[in-house]
Every structure is written in structure tokens, then in C-alpha cells.
């Protein structure tokens, strides 16, 4: 009979300081962060370690009834481990929740539940410097977390609710996701990062501020020729770097604007089934913003009536204020006009507080009579438009011509230009029309103070995305351009020889040349619709990996181009093996037939054999630029599971689980070989 059990007493043993140091070094994963000024605190002697504070939090909270310093003030409630900054840090609790500071160790890997339990147990035991017990398993000492497998599966691994909690190592791509597939936590951190850049606008000389980053587009942007795509790839990357200086795990999402249900329907109309914008970018009220309205002077009885609107997304201001009017029960136009004259700016402030990705100078899909409304609907980028563009074969046609043969690329014209017009729109509340001779001055730039309250409260004729000079001040600019960049990368895979003519052209104001942008992986990112990660804790061999079922949202199930299972940071294995991948087959083993519909594919691993060198010869070396990757460095493996995933989803599956079975060279199951940092299931557009 097959049995699975944990090695006796290992999980309950109290670690010593050397074990804690080893654990923290592993979590740091070679991070170069100065850890908030504390440096590599895991290398300190124990007496110094116990005195370290990061972000005002002592790594180890004082023991007893009073603080170690501070005049004998009472210690906050909770156990010593619970009060310790180290536990808060590895758990990702405030202030180490990504809002002010990242998890501990900064720049490292996320701790597993087992790691956290080891740290907590050590602190509650009084932070012993020496081992409290000798643990012997099968006649020899084993590392903490070793799982003894009696011929079959190891534990069932949990999938992170937020994939950002997994710490990607050097050589692993950061993932730009479909904005409609992001978790609430991912969106919250993205909004936080935008707020941090907005806050820097108070210092006009600070190059990191949002306005100064937006000004780059106003002064240097490239459109209408071959540098359009390379220039914007760099611009996105540089802006993303500024966001990551505040929230390290933030990446720029893309808006798949040609997918359902965006834009007008087949009849050319926008009805309740269609969307003008992603909900993440829309206006909405929260409980906190209701308090803001109350504090700003909006009467309490009126704020109370707005409670049903909390959480409702509105792409257009007109729809939001129509809902406010209905909630307040104001029938007469003149009365509501007077109400808006008094309170409109306060509502705008409340909406900005709720969502820093919303922008009031944006009127998506709104075009008045006598404008391009009668034709814009026919040009909203539909899936067939994207298919035609992806079928082009020359860079001139796709991305734009050179100095010697200039032209707009079709991707630049539509969807890019169309999406600027669509998202900018025409303000339906703007009553005056410019004189014919002033029609080109309708989008005002001169004298404006972008992202200041007086500007955000204004009522311009056009939205800022409508103009090349103001577009980047609207946060929607970035997801639109991320999708354009994604479409270029997709085209590049099918047309690897489709290159711009001027590869040595410099992309001002930076020092990048066009040729530097051809491989987006050099910038450290990839485009993934949705990813699910299951970290594998500890350094023990995984007898067999089985994830818990992963619930897939309808948007993922309905449309994806590719599905991949990835094995993260697999070290050089001593023996060759096959790793079979099954979906929705949690009890798969070596005898499970490969003709089953749940069999997804396999990865073949060529074993290294025993170490033939001296001490340190087989230890993986840290990756360094200019030095070949060490043969023993952990690597990633990918298995294409598209056909299997699609087959199961078409049969009605709304969740998928991943099972790995390791088959040795003798075609028997090898339960003592595979080690890795994590397993992920990824869906790509």
C-alpha cells in the first residue's frame, strides 16, 4: 500500500540560529538590496541580529512586559513572534505588504508557510543560538522540511492567490498581464505606484514625477515611421521602472482592446453588453470616498443615498453623474445643474481618491452629433483587423517606414491612433464649439498645470488622449501602448527577419539604439494573460507534485492562444528523467496511461551525474553579466499544455490542477530526485 508521511519530528523541531541564517540566505536568493540599511543581516552574529531594526520594526520583538527601549512602555498585545518585524516581513504584513516596503528579505523570494513556521518557532523559543535537538531521519541528518515519501505522492501544493507573491529569480521574466485578469491586490499595488508618482509632481524638478515622465512623450515621441514601436517599447520600460521603484512587483498591464466585449457591437452601437474601458480604469466610489464627500461638505443625508453606488464602475462621467442624480432623486435639470455647479469638483476629488487609474479628462467612446461619431464605430479595432495586421510581412507595412521610405505602419494607424481618439473622446458637457479658425486649438496644452486640481476639475472640449501632446497624462495611455507593444512582439515571433532599416538610430532622450529593442526579453518582461504559481517550499525532493484545483475566470477559459506549465529554478539533477505533466489527474502515477485526455506532455531532463570536482565545484554560481551561465545554475523548464487545457475546458472544466510525475531512466517513478522553487500554469494571448 502506498503511504506518504513526514519525517518524524522535523516539522515540530525548534531551529537554531544557524538554521535561521541558512533559511534567510535562501530567501534572499542573492539579492543586492541593502535591506533598508541593515545590509545582509542574516550574516550578523546573533547578538547583533537581535538589535536590527528595519523600517522602524525590530526584527525580533522584545521579550517580557516592557519594551527594550522607550521608557518602559507596555509591549503591544500578541505573541513575541507576531510582534516581530522578521515575521511581519516574511509574511508580507504591514509595513512589508508592498505598499510601503516589500516583503523581507527585500528583493528575495517569498517565504513558504513552512519557512514562516520555522521563524516563528525560533522566536517563540527565545531565539536559541544552538540547536535544541538533533534530528535523525533514516540514519542521517536531513534538512528541515524533508518529506519522506513511501513510493508515491508528496503533499498537495497551494496556489498563490496573488502570483506577485512569488519572487522571480534572475533570468525569469516579469509578467505583464491582461488588466482584466489581474487580482484586486495587483490592481491596488498598481494604483499605489501611480499615486506615488503623482505625489512627486510637487517637486517639478524631480525627473521621476508623473508629469515629467509624461512630458517625455510630449517632447520626444516618435510616430508615423519605423521608430514608433521601438521608442514606445523603451518608454513603457522606463515608466515601469519608476513604478517599480515604489512597488517592486508591479508591472504594466495591457488592455486587449480588440477582444470582447470592448467597443461597439456588430450593429455599431454601444449598449449595456458592451464596454468602453476596462473596469480597473473606471470611476467608482468606495466607503472611504463617501467619507471624503462628507468631510468636503456634501450633506450627510445625500451621502447616505449614494451608498448603493459604492463599487459600481463608470467609464464615463455622464453615466456616473446620471447615477448620482437618480440616487439623490433630483428630477429637474436646472436643480441638478446647480447641484453640480456646487459639488462637481468634490465628486471628482472623491473619484480620484478611489482610483488613481481613473482620469476625469477622458470621455471614452463619446462623440457628439456632427462629429466622427457616424464613422468611428466602423473603425474600432476588431479581431479581424488585428488578424489582417498580423498577416503583414514587412516592417514598413506593419510598424512604419524609414527615413528613405517613410509611412505610417498599419499598427500605428489603427488600432493605435483609433484608440487614442476612442479613449480621449469628446466632452458631452462642453457646450461651446471653437470658431473654425481655432478648431486645432481645441486640445489645450499651453499654461496647463497637469494633475493639479484646477486642471482636473476643468471641462475641456476633448479628452487628453485625443492629442499627441497630452495623451500620456492619462493613465490609460500605458495599458493601450502595452497592448500595442504586445502585438508587435506577437508579430516578431512570426516575422523574425522583419526589421526596421535604421537599427543604429538613437531613441532620444535615452541612449538606446533601435537594435537594443528588438528582443523585449532583454528588458526583463513577457506578456501573459494570467498566471498561477504554486511555490515549492524547502530544499527537499518532491516525490510527486500535485496542485490544488485552480479556478479559471471566464475570460481566461474563453480565449487563450497558449497554455504552459513551467517548472521554476530546477537545479542540475544528478540523474536523467522525464517529468510527465497531467491536468485534472491528481492521482496520476507511473502507470497512468499516456493516451488519457488528462495527459498534457512532458519535459526531458539530461542528468549531470555525480560531482567530479573539489569542494564548491558543483555549487551553482550566481549569474553575472559577461560570464557564461554556470552549468549547475538552476533553470526553468516549460511544457506546452495548450491542447490538453483546451480539451478539458471545452468539456466543461472550470478549474484545472497540475500534477507532475517523475519517471527515471528505468521507467519507474523516481520520488527522490526533483527539486524546484515552484510550478506555474500560464495562459497567453
Overview of this structure, please?
It is built from 20 helices and 17 strands. Strands 5-9-16-12-13 form a five-stranded mixed sheet. Strands 8-17-11-14 form a four-stranded antiparallel sheet, with helices on one face. The chain has a two-stranded antiparallel sheet with strand order 1-4. It starts with a strand and ends with a strand. The chain is globular and about 85 Å long. It folds into four domains: 17-65 and 76-125, no CATH class; 156-171 and 528-684, Jelly Rolls, CATH 2.60.120; 175-264 and 377-431 and 452-516, di-copper center containing domain from catechol oxidase; 283-354. It has helices spanning 17-28, 46-49, 80-83, 85-91, 113-124, 184-199, 210-220, 228-244, 287-295, 300-305, 317-328, 333-354, 373-379, 383-390, 395-398, 410-424, 453-456, 477-494, 554-558, 642-650, and strands spanning 3-6, 53-54, 57-58, 147-150, 156-157, 174-177, 525-528, 530-535, 545-547, 550-551, 562-570, 577-583, 599-605, 635-640, 655-656, 658-664, 678-684. Helix 9 packs across helix 12 (333-354). The model is unreliable at 1-12, 65-77 and 131-153 (pLDDT under 50). The relative contact order is 0.11. A hairpin with a 2-residue loop joins strand 2 and strand 3 (57-58). With 685 residues, the protein is α+β, with helices and mostly antiparallel strands.
